[in-house]
Amino acid sequence: MISLDVATITLAKGQHETCEDGMCLFEAYNQITRREQTDACPPGVSPVLHIYGMRLNDVLPDDRRQELKRYLPNGTDVLAGTAGDGLDGVRAWMALDWLIRVYAPAWLDLAGLAGEASALRNLAPVTDSATAEAARLAGAAARAAARDAAWAAAGAALAPTVARLQDSAIALYADLITGGVS
Question: Reduced to 3 states, what is the DSSP secondary structure of residue 164?
């Protein structure tokens, strides 16, 4: 291990050529543990944790991204030994469950689709293929409701522009008939 003070590291979005250019979560992890500037999955780290950590690093704003430093080796290494620990299947189901029962309902609530949001939140936890199929069906209904609401909102917002264009098109037709001569 090289001596990198986790407290002084500022995690950055994306991939970087050198440490001086910045480091994402796994570039910092690999620098600390292997002295390598790469965001590749480190030996001993679960591929599920690696992929999720990479995506989380890149979607968080700069200030919240720094909270991920707690997962860098700093006396202890909570990620070491997670590869091959037999939990990746559970981790994958947990991530899918979060998307369906937490993430999607939050957006449905914002769209005013509280019933659909509640239906997803109240699903049984997604832990296997059977519960995933039930969630898929509920998700399809929520997706259809969201699509219908989006089209309705877009239609209402566009109505004045559509009316102006229709008026203009009718006026143009009259001008086309006369060749523009009144």
Answer: helix
Tell me which residue has tokens 């019933």: 115
The per-residue pLDDT string of the chain (182 residues; one tens digit each, 9 = 90 and over) reads 444 788 889 999 998 988 888 899 999 999 999 999 999 999 999 999 999 999 999 999 999 999 999 999 988 999 999 999 999 999 999 999 999 999 999 999 988 999 999 999 999 999 999 999 999 999 999 999 989 988 888 887 888 888 888 888 888 888 888 887 87
The answer to whether residues 68 and 106 touch, using CB atoms and an 8 Å cutoff, is no
Whether this prediction's pTM lies above 0.85 is answered by no
The upper half-sphere exposure of residue 109, i.e. CA atoms within 13 Å in the direction of its Cβ, equals: 10
95-115 b/e with 16+ CB inside 10 Å = b?
Answer: bebeebbeebbeebeeeebee
Rounded CA separation 116/143 (Å): 9
DSSP assignment of 52-118, as one string? HHHHHHHHS-HHHHGGGGGGS-SSS-SSTT-TTSS-HHHHHHHHHHHIIIIIHHHHHHHTT-HHHHH
